[in-house]
Amino acid sequence: MRLHKSTFLCIAAVVLTLILAAAAWFLLPDSVGMQLGVSGQVQNFMPKPLALLLPVGLCAVGTGLSFTEERRTAGLILALISPVLVVITIFMNHSF
């Protein structure tokens, strides 16, 4: 079976997401803010393991979809969004 180019992009996104999630594990507090209100204040919190597991799972699903011909584009989009979500989570919750 020959892999499509988008599958390799998805695999790279998985690796990047895992690296970012590992870094975020040490940078983020135990309770991670996930929703900003109109005033700019965090309104909704989530435990750190769940907040980091969601993007990793989303990336894994996207990579799995990239193996099928009819869902390749959707899989690529899901996989490429995942590292962006981890970066947004880090910037939203970490004070530099």
Task: Give a quick summary of the entry.
The chain is of the alpha+beta class and 96 residues long.
Task: Based on the model shown, name its key terms.
96 residues, alpha+beta, two-stranded antiparallel ribbon, elongated
Write a structural description.
This is DUF1648 domain-containing protein. The protein has helices spanning about 5-25, 50-65, 70-95; strands spanning about 30-35, 40-45. It contains three helices and two strands. With about 100 residues, the protein is α+β, with helices and mostly antiparallel strands. A two-stranded antiparallel ribbon has the order 1-2. It has one domain (about 5-30, about 40-95).
Task: Give the helices and strands, then pairings.
Elements: H1 5-27, E1 31-36, E2 42-47, H2 48-65, H3 72-93
Antiparallel strand pairs: 1-2
Structural class: alpha+beta
Could you say which overall geometry the principal axes of the C-alpha atoms support?
elongated
Largest sheet: 2 strands, antiparallel
Head-to-tail CA distance between termini: 46 Å
How many separate domains make up the residues? 1
Low-pLDDT stretches are: none
On the 0-100 scale, what is the average pLDDT? 88
Q: What is the element string, with H for helices and E for strands?
A: HEEHH
Number of extended strands: 2
The DSSP helix count reads 3
- How much strand? 5-15%
Query: Helicity, in percent?
Result: 55-70%
Gyration radius, in Å:
15 Å
Strand order of the largest sheet: 1-2
